[in-house]
Design a protein that fits this description.
- The complex is a heterodimer of chains A (373) and B (288).
- Chain A folds into two domains: 231 residues, P-loop containing nucleotide triphosphate hydrolases (Rossmann fold, 3-Layer(aba) Sandwich); 124 residues, OB fold (Dihydrolipoamide Acetyltransferase, E2P).
- Chain A contains ten helices and 20 strands.
- In chain A, helix 2 packs across helix 3 and helix 2 packs parallel to helix 4.
- With 373 residues, chain A is of the alpha+beta class.
- The longest helix of chain B is centred in the first third of the chain and has 41 residues.
- In chain B, helix 12 packs antiparallel against helix 13.
- Chain B contains 13 helices and no strands.
- Chain B has two domains: 62 residues, no CATH class; 205 residues, MetI-like fold (Orthogonal Bundle), CATH 1.10.3720.10.
- Classes of the chains: A alpha+beta (373), B mainly alpha (288).
- At the A-B interface, strand 6, helix 2 and helix 4 of A face helix 8 and helix 9 of B.
């Protein structure tokens, strides 16, 4: 259990390639923080700097108030789970999990107690005598987590632990990590490129791109109030629809005018815009697929589209529709409100009218791509 | 139809296997024939010189008995064994440490160092023979005291023999080192508790080659021991037994017996270690 603080941390490779720029983050004790971003954004590098596996080029990393820049990984009291499991192939599952304890010269009884306890939690008791090669991918990853669990480490680091598992197992393990977290209650830093993992696991999410932090916030914050276009498009699946359009102010009311329609900005968003005294201007409008609704008929606030692709997901349809000028928009339609006839109609070439929920639209500056609010 | 095709495949496989086995058998005979001759010669008692036939007319252990009672062979054998033992231990430690360092640690001029060693390795070792002799002679490690001298010579350049084991170390995933370091291991523990158990075949290979070297080396051993029988290794000693035409006539079969005895320790070592000489110990370490 510990607080982790990164101050102006930088990673420079070969004197000129900057992988991580001025990374500042204060992670509270027992917090679960997720670093998320596309490959090459510096998230793993940052984690490895905390672990001591990469040298810190500039800045400081503190664990529990102690600057650990010059400490070896073994002296940082951290546990880490690797993407490719990194189990010791010559040792049995038991010995793999006992490895860090044996290095601490712990007595055998205590080692036995801790390993069997962890094995029980992870449901791998029956495999304790096997070698890693006799285990499936999911079981191997459990062993790797077990090896990290048996120690009372201050910080639990996980570097894309679920990336090598198939989709079903990944969902299952994700739920288990949430349970695990409740059991071992320590500081977690988790790296992933999967926004679903980030949203479901993290108390706070750190979204990174090209070595820069784009936004730090709770899952709600980054979803509801993305700091910029990158975050808006990265978080949420299917990704947010974005297109250039105009924001029009009429008195204290705001409208957006995509594809010849005129849609009113409702609720808090409208209040915030007027509080900030935003004038009429060009914007990039962001609308999540689930915030688009079908309209029965043509109105001022509707956009005429034709269905291009209809993906039936079970509880909802993902419609890829084209506006008249050829812009593609993705719409999520819950199937529960549709009749069979309506569902069957949604085929290639079918004409529909859509409109946007006025209170959950996002407005971005076309140049800086930052959120206007 | 398909069964016929299947049978055809089977017959083809059998035919190609037969051809392969015939070739292998011929090659083995060509390889083994000289050894067979030497073993036969060592048991021949009717004459001591070279003869025009292979199988002895009279079999016996006379040559072996003479070898151990009438020559300094036990001394040479002990010398060589001592040298081989020391060299095997020291050289293995140095080579493995060197390989680990070059495989895992990144430091300035690492590449340069490897290139220099590569180029140095291209020069034949005996270029340095005169200089080495002068140095060892100055230290009093020649003639009858040549054993520590020879150990120094053999061990001296062992760091350069890192290629094979470094190549093997490179195939062990780095994340295993990293996991071990996070788990609380220092560099030495990473080497001894993770890398070496995984690299058993290459460790065995290193021990074997280090142990075998001194048994076969003639040039340095001869040069450093020169005429002193107390400082000779088996290669030098056996050669001195047949150094002149008259000695060759008198000692040839005994020389062959010496050759057979020399093969014994190496064979024992090889056979006892070969079960560790297996591949595939890394399965299941990492995804992939």
């Amino acid at each position: 259990m510990a607080r982790v603080k990164l101050t102006d941390v930088k990673k420079i490779y070969d004197k000129n390639v900057v992988a991580v720029h001025d990374f500042n983050l204060d992670i509270a004790d027992k917090e679960f923080v997720v670093f998320v971003g596309p490959s090459g954004c510096g998230k793993s590098t940052t984690l490895r700097m905390i672990a001591g596996l990469e040298e810190i080029s500039e800045g400081t990393v503190e664990i529990d108030g102690v600057v650990v820049n010059d400490l070896q990984p073994k002296d940082r009291n951290i546990a880490m789970v690797f993407q490719n499991y990194a189990l010791y192939p010559h040792l049995s599952v038991f010995e793999n999990m006992a490895f860090p304890l044996r290095l601490q010269k712990m007595n055998n009884d205590e080692i036995y107690r801790r390993v069997t306890e962890a094995a029980e939690i992870l449901c791998i008791t029956e495999y304790l005598n096997r070698k890693p090669r006799a285990l499936s991918g999911g079981q191997r990853q459990r062993v790797a987590i077990g090896r990290a669990m048996v120690r009372d480490s201050k910080v639990f680091l996980m570097d894309e632990p679920l990336s090598n598992l198939d989709a079903k197992l990944r969902n299952q393990m994700r739920a288990e990590i949430i349970l695990l977290r409740q059991k071992i209650d320590t500081t977690f830093i988790y790296v992933t490129h999967d926004q679903t993992e980030a949203m479901t696991l993290g108390d706070r999410i750190v979204i990174m791109k090209d070595g820069y932090i784009q936004q730090v916030g709770t899952p709600d914050e980054v979803f509801d109030m993305p700091a910029n276009l990158f975050v808006a498009e990265f978080i949420g699946a299917p990704k947010m629809n974005t297109f250039p359009t105009k924001l029009v102010r009429e008195g204290n009311e705001y409208f957006v005018t995509p594809f010849g329609s005129k849609i009113k900005v409702d609720g808090a968003k409208g209040v915030d815009l007027s509080a900030k005294n935003v004038k009429s201007r060009d914007i990039i409008l962001g609308v999540r697929p689930e915030h688009i609704v079908l309209a029965d008929e043509k109105r001022d606030d509707t956009i005429e589209c034709t269905v291009q692709v209809n993906e039936m997901m079970g509880s909802e349809l993902h419609l890829h529709v084209l506006t008249k000028d050829g812009t593609q928009i993705i719409v999520r339609v819950p199937t529960i409100n549709l009749t069979h006839q309506q569902r069957d109609e949604m085929v290639n070439g079918h004409k529909i009218y859509i409109t946007f929920e006025g209170k959950v639209m996002h407005f971005f500056d076309p140049e800086s791509t930052n959120n206007l609010l | 139809m398909s069964e016929k095709k299947h049978m055809g495949m089977k017959a083809k496989t059998r035919l190609s296997n037969t051809i392969i086995y015939i070739i292998l058998t011929v090659m083995s005979i060509v390889w083994l024939f000289p050894f067979f001759c030497i073993v036969c010669e060592s048991f021949r008692v009717e004459s001591t010189h070279q003869v025009g036939y292979v199988l002895p007319k009279q079999w016996g252990f006379d040559n072996y008995i003479n070898l151990f009672t009438k020559t300094d062979f036990p001394v040479w054998f002990k010398n060589t064994f001592l040298i081989a033992l020391f060299v095997a231990v020291i050289q293995t430690v140095i080579v493995l440490c060197m390989s680990y360092t070059l495989s895992r640690l990144r430091f300035k001029s690492r590449k340069g160092l490897m290139n220099v060693m590569l180029i140095l390795g291209m020069f034949p070792g005996f270029l340095s023979m005169i200089v080495l002799y002068k140095v060892l002679n100055g230290m009093g490690l020649t003639g009858p005291n040549s054993i520590p001298g020879l150990i120094l010579v053999y061990v001296g350049s062992s760091g350069m023999g890192y290629y094979v084991s470094k190549g093997y170390f490179d195939t062990i995933p780095r994340s295993l080192d990293e996991a071990a370091r996070v788990d609380g291991a220092n560099r030495l523990q990473v080497l001894t508790k993770v890398m070496l158990p995984l690299c058993k075949p290459i460790v065995i290979y290193t021990i074997l080659t280090a142990f075998m070297g001194p048994w076969g080396d003639f040039m340095f051993a001869k040069y450093i021991a020169h005429a002193s029988s107390a400082g000779m290794t088996v290669a030098v000693g056996l050669q001195s037994m047949i150094g002149t035409p008259s000695a060759l006539t008198a000692n040839y079969t005994m020389f062959c017996a010496g050759g057979v005895v020399v093969a014994v320790p190496i064979t024992i070592l090889f056979m006892s270690l070969q079960k560790y000489y297996v591949e595939g110990v890394t399965g299941g370490a990492v995804k992939g």
